[in-house]
Specification:
With about 450 residues, the protein is an alpha/beta fold. The protein is about 25% helix and about 30% strand. The strands form 7 sheets. Strands 11-12-15-16-19-20-21-22 form an 8-stranded parallel β-barrel, surrounded by 7 helices. Strand 1 and strand 2 form a beta hairpin. The longest helix is centred in the N-terminal third of the chain and has 20 residues. Bound molecules: (5S)-5-amino-3-OXO-hexanoic acid (KMH) and zinc ion.
């Protein structure tokens, strides 16, 4: 059986009597390596459209015996993609084992509640450039989260410890797409959790501080320089608790140097008091929603006095505001805020497109919004659902910054869940390089956004 999409592959195989090589029906370690080889081959076929070649193992650990009658589940994940090399981490787990006890039938077997890790390895495969048949879109695979904090459907692919995703940038191809601002710096923001998406919709949603930090680190590896942050209660419901934000921010800070942009939008229906919670953490950056808007069947209320109150609190926290605009009039409101001294230059707009009931995610609309941006200001685009990819790609071609991630879109492709936000970031970064945009690091993002110190 195989499951897993993108760059994670899992096989489950029964070890038979013919696999047993040593006394006591012990299966030899080479059998595990053969399974790793099969997983590696499938990974290469998915990535490159070619079986490739296994070049070397740099580490192999045999951790527990495998006997005839055991079922072994083998997972492989691509952790680094070079020009021709693909580095992978493998893990084999025993998920069913024969009982083998005196007085118990020889055919008795148990499905293990906690799989036993029997072997781990790291290895590298190669696919010569001339045999690579797929476009260079790097989609790092991610692990699922710890079972006790998730409601993952079975079977749960678990790689322990979770591999960090390291994406080796494919070379830029300047000039590949007309209209690109060649060489222009690009900030990719990863919106890793949001307030609305649920674990029932995607098992890849990070919830705890550790999960948020792991996801932030993967997104940073994949090319994100800013993380747009919400937090959740342990039951997955949205929260604006300053304590939860502090915990998440501290955990992220330990793993990634990204700009952390906290939400002051929270979830529909929250009071301004509640939404101000994260500002107690004095974040580097915070969102400022510039007007009310239909939000699906709800209304996301941002009255003018409330916007001013939040702008004041963002200023007092020493944070930089990102101006979330969901309608054309919100740009005018942002300019009024500037004129009245509630916010200061440089302005950074985020155009949020495609929310049901609000402005559409269309090229003419984005171009019009961009035409309203004053000189010296920067802008980004965040589009929801299936609009995310085309709008962010358009945004990159016409000189904007972009936001991707599970808050706005949980799918990598039609019907294919993204394994976290990092694959969406990696795909955006890959496209950026194709059109000659330079994916920049957090330090340079801070300079562009006017953030002075971490
Ligand atoms: N959850 C939305 C209602 C923000 O982060 O500032 C609001 C939101 C905007 O996500
Ligand atoms: Zn948000």
């Amino acid at each position: 059986m195989t499951h897993g999409l993108g760059l994670t592959v899992t096989l489950r195989v029964r070890m038979g009597a013919h696999d047993a090589h040593y006394a006591g029906e012990l299966v030899d370690g080479a059998r595990m390596l053969a399974l790793f080889g099969d997983v590696a081959t499938e990974l290469l076929i998915r990535l490159d459209g070619d079986e490739g070649l296994f070049r070397a193992y740099e580490a192999v650990e045999f951790l527990a015996p495998v006997l005839a009658g055991d079922y072994v589940e083998v997972t492989g994940v691509i952790t680094k993609v070079g020009n021709t090399s693909r580095r992978m981490a493998f893990e084999a787990r025993k998920v069913v084992q024969n009982v083998r006890q005196p007085g118990v039938a020889a055919s008795a077997a148990d499905a293990l509640w906690d799989p036993i890790v029997v072997c781990r390895a790291i290895g590298t495969c190669v696919v010569p450039v001339e045999l690579q048949r797929k476009p260079r879109i790097v989609l790092p695979a991610l692990t699922s989260f710890a079972p006790e904090t998730s409601a993952l459907p079975e079977p749960r692919p678990i790689i322990t410890p979770p591999p960090r995703v390291i994406v080796t940038p494919p070379g830029a191809k300047p000039g590949a797409k007309p209209g690109a601002e060649l060489g222009a710096e690009l900030i990719i923001t990863a919106a890793i959790v949001g307030a609305e998406v649920t674990r029932a919709q995607t098992p890849h949603l990070p919830i705890t501080a550790k999960e948020l930090a792991d996801e932030a680190a993967r997104c940073r590896d994949a090319g994100a320089s800013v993380v747009h942050l919400h937090v959740r209660n342990a039951d997955g419901s949205p929260s604006q608790s300053s304590d939860l934000f502090r915990e998440a921010i501290e955990a992220i800070r330990e793993k990634a140097d990204v700009v952390i942009q906290t939400s002051t939008g929270g979830a529909v229906g929250m009071s301004i008091e509640e939404r101000s919670g994260p500002l107690a953490c004095k974040p580097e950056m915070a969102t400022l929603n510039c007007g009310s808007v239909n939000f699906g069947d709800d209304i996301f209320v941002n009255s003018r006095p409330d916007i001013r109150q939040l702008a004041k609190r963002i200023r007092e926290a020493g944070s930089i505001a990102e101006l979330e605009c969901y309608e054309v009039g919100h740009i005018d409101e942002a300019l009024a805020l500037l004129k009245d001294g509630h916010i200061v230059n440089p302005l950074h707009f985020q155009f949020v497109l495609g929310i049901a009931g609000a402005i559409g995610a269309r090229e003419d609309i984005l171009r019009f919004l961009v035409s309203q941006v004053p000189p010296g200001a920067t802008w980004g685009v965040a589009a929801v659902g299936r609009h995310q990819r085309p709008m962010t790609e358009l945004g990159m071609r016409i000189g904007g910054h972009v936001r991707v991630g599970l808050e706005d879109n949980i799918y990598l492709d039609k019907g294919v869940l993204s394994e976290g936000s990092a694959p969406l970031v990696a795909r955006a970064a890959s496209y950026a390089r194709e059109v000659g945009r330079e994916v920049i690091d957090p330090e340079r993002a801070r300079r562009i956004l006017g953030i002075t110190a971490v």
